[in-house]
Amino acid sequence: MNDKEITRELYESIGVDVHKHEPDAARLVVHGNEVVGAHLVPGLKVETAEKTDGIEAEIRITRGVKIEKPVQLCFGVLPETGLQHIRLNLDVEQDAKASVVAHCTFPNAVEVEHKMDATIQIGPGAEYGYFERHVHGPHGGVNVIPKAKINLEERARFKTEFELIKGRVGKLDIDYEVTCHAESVLELMARISGRGDDSIVIHETGHLLGENARAVLQSYIALRETAKAVVYNTITAHARGARGHVDCKEIVQGEALAKAVPIVEVNHPGAHVTHEAAIGSVDSKQLQTLLSRGLNEDEATDLIIEGMLS
Amino acid sequence: MGILEVRDVVLKLGGKDVINHLTIDFWEGHIHALVGPNGAGKSTLANVIMGLPGYTDYEGDIIFKEESLKDLPIDERARRGITLGWQEPARFEGLTVYRFIIAGAKVKTSERVKEVLAEVGLSPENYMNRAMDKTLSGGERKRIEVASILAMEPKLVLMDEPDSGIDVEAIERIFSTIKGLKAKGTTVVLITHSLAVLEQAEHAFLICHGQLIDKGSVGEIEKYFKSKCISCNHQNVPDFGDAL
Asked: What distance in Å separates residue B107's CA from the closest CA in chain A?
C-alpha cells in the first residue's frame, strides 16, 4: 500500500472519511514508525526523524500563536504485529494555544506494541489540550505504554483526556508526571473499558509546586470478565493556595479486579487536596430502574457504564 | 377477574410479617390507590409485584394476565407490561435524558421521546440533551421518570408516592398524565398516603401492618383514612427499602 492508501485505511478504522478533513486544520499521520501524511499550519513546527527502532518528533507551537482548529494526529499499526515507538518533544511556547485530537488505531492487532515517551513543556500563559482516543480490535493484542514528563510554567493550562472504550484494551500502562508552577492548571482524565484478560495500570502524578496551582486527576474505569486495573493517582502540594482533587471511579463486573490508590501529600498549611475513590458493581437503583423498563441485565449494565464513561 | 391479582401474599423481612395474607385484585384500565400510613407495606407490595431483589421470597402468588409472576426477574415482568415509577428516581451520571428515555421506549425514535417529554410538560428542546444528573431538580427527574414510563407503553404502572419531592405545577402535570395513561387503557396503581393523590383514583385499598383493612370507593376510603388513620398511633413495620 502507498502512503495515501495507508492513511485512508487508518482513518476508516476509526470511522473518519479522509476526504472530509478540513483543509486548514493541521494533521500528522504515523503508521508504524513512518510518517505517511502531514499538513502543517503557520506557527506549528514539526520535525520528524524515522529511526529503525522508532520515530522522533519535535513539535513546537511558537510564542503567542493560537491555532484555532484542533491539530489532528493519527497513530496506528494496521498489520497484526508491529512496534510503534514515538519519542516526542513538545514545546508550547509562552502564551501560545493549541489543542490536539489524537486517534490511535490498532484494528487488527494480535501482537502490537505502541510506546510513547514524551517530554512536554507548556510555557508561561500557554494552553494545551490533548484528547487521545484509542480504537483497538477485538483480540486485545496491544501493549500500550504512554509515558510523559510534563512541565507547566506559570499560568499555563494543560488538559488531557485518554479514552479507550472501543475494542479490547490489551495491556495499558500509563505513566504521566506533571510539575505545576504558580497559577497553572492541570486536568488529567482517563476513561477506559476493559474486558477479557485486559490489564490496566495508571500512574498519574501532579506536583503543585507554585502558589495557587491547581490539579484534578480523574479516572473512570469499567471492568468486565477477568480484566484488572490498578490506578495510582498522586497529588503533592507544596505552596500556598495550591488546590488538588483526585477522583477515581471503577465499576467491576464478573471476576474483574480493581484497585485504586489515591495518594495525597500536602506540605504547606495553605494548600488543600481532596480525594475520593469508589469501586463497586453498577448502582443497584440505576440497574433496577432500567430492568423495570424492560432492558435485560447486560443491556442495562452497558448503558450505565456508557454513562459513566461518557 | 383483575389484570393483576395478589393472592394471599405473605412476606417476612427481618423475621416480621411486612405483607400479611394480602389479597387484592386490580382491574384492567382503572386507576387504583393503595393508601395507608408510613410503613404500612404499600411500597413493599409494589416492590414484591415488580420483583425487586429482597422482595421475591413471598408466600402466596401474584398473577398478571393469568400468569404467575413467581420466579420471573424484574426485566421479564417489565417485558410482560409491568413497570414501577420510583418514589425517588435514580440519577444517571453521564446519560442524557434522551438516552435514558429511548432505552426503554417501545417506539425508539427521537420523535417519540419529544412527544413524551412534551406530555409531562418538559420542553424537548431544553431537555433532550440534558444530563440525568444532579443538575435536575427532584420535580424534573420525576417528570422524566413519568415520560420514560409513557414511552415504554406498559400495561400496568405502579407509581410510588408520585407527589413526593415535587412542586404544585409538576404534580398537576403528573395527575393529568395519570389520566392520560388510563385513557390509553393502562392500569395504574398509586401508592400514597396523600389525600390529593388518593383523589385521582377510582378505587382504593387501605393497608395497615401489611394487611388489607378496607377497600371501596375513593370517598369511602378517604373518609376512613381521615377519621381513623391520620390520628392513629399504631406502630407500623418500617419499610426496609435499600437496606435489603
From this structure: 13
Q: What is the pLDDT of residues A54-90, one digit of tens each?
A: 999 999 999 999 999 999 999 999 999 999 999 999 9
**Cβ partners under 8 Å of residue A124, min gap 6:** A94, A95, A153, A154, A155, A156
Q: Which of B58, B120, B57 lies closest to B89 in space, CA to CA?
A: B120
Closest to A267 (Cα-Cα) out of A218, A217, A208, A216: A208
In A, minimum Cα distance to B96 occurs at A307
* A295, closest residue in chain B (CA to CA): B75
- What is d(CA A277, CA B176) in angstroms, rounded to the nearest whole number? 43
d(CA B117, CA B124): 6
Q: Where are the domains of chain A?
A: 3-283
Interface predicted TM-score (ipTM):
0.93
Sorted by sequence, the CB contacts under 8 Å of residue B77 that are 6+ apart come out as A292, B49, B50, B51, B64, B69
**For chain B, what are the domain ranges?**
4-89+155-243
B49 neighbors B62 (Cβ within 8 angstroms): yes
Considering the segment(s) B4-89+155-243 as one domain, its CATH architecture is 3-Layer(aba) Sandwich (3.40)
Strands B92-96 and B131-132: antiparallel
Is B243's pLDDT higher than 50? no
Say whether A285 and B94 touch across the interface (CB within 8 A): no
Q: Are A287 and A300 within 8 A, CB to CB?
A: yes
Q: Residues in chain A whose beta carbon is closer than 8 A to a beta carbon of chain B? A: 283-286, 288-297, 299-300, 303-304, 306-310
Report how far apart, in Å, the C-alpha atoms of A296 and of each of A270, A301, A303, B95 are: 51, 9, 11, 18
Interchain proximity B79–A307, CB inside 8 Å:
no
Task: Please state, as a whole number, how many other Cβ atoms lie within 10 Å of the Cβ of residue A255.
Answer: 11
A152-208 pLDDT, tens digit per residue, is: 999 999 999 999 998 899 999 999 999 999 999 999 999 999 999 999 999 999 999
C-alpha B55/C-alpha B158 separation (Å) is 15
Report how far residue B122's alpha carbon sits from residue B112's, in angstroms, rounded to the nearest whole number: 14
- Residues B183, B185: Cα–Cα separation, whole Å: 5
Q: Do the beta carbons of residue A243 and residue A235 sit within 8 Å?
A: no
User: How many beta carbons lie within 10 A of that of residue A44, not counting itself?
Assistant: 18
Given an 8 Å threshold on Cβ–Cβ distance, is B78 in contact with A286?
A: no
